[in-house]
Specification:
alpha/beta, 5 strands, 35% helix, 15% strand
Length: 110
């Protein structure tokens, strides 16, 4: 089962929904002291904890090869309070379709 680290451009409630509704090991960068951290720090954390990073920062993470990268563009998600539930549901679908994800970039359907 994939563990997630949700980057700061997404609401913290995304990680809470992944935990509470879908049963995943999921944290938001704000919950683990990584809010405002450099992307290299985030990449190091997900490598150390065997997590997939959920981010919109394609250019910043594109060179990372040793982590599972889940790229989601906010413009493809609903706005406001509907964003976290939509993202959590998309990540659950992706995780069920990719129980053993390869290292590198993935683009979950939203």
């Amino acid at each position: 089962m994939t563990a997630f680290l949700v980057d700061e451009m997404f609401p913290p409630t995304t990680a809470a929904l992944l935990r509470d509704k879908y049963g995943y090991d999921a944290v938001h960068v704000a919950e683990v002291g990584l809010k405002g951290a450099e992307d290299a720090q985030i990449a190091a954390a997900v490598r150390a904890e065997d997590r997939a990073v959920v981010t919109e920062n394609v250019a910043d993470f594109a060179a990372e090869r040793e982590v599972v990268l889940l790229f989601v563009l906010k413009k493809n998600l609903p706005a406001g309070s509907a964003q976290a539930p939509a993202l959590a549901a998309a990540l659950d679908r992706w995780a069920n379709q990719h129980p053993e994800p390869y290292l590198g970039p993935h683009w979950p359907s939203v």
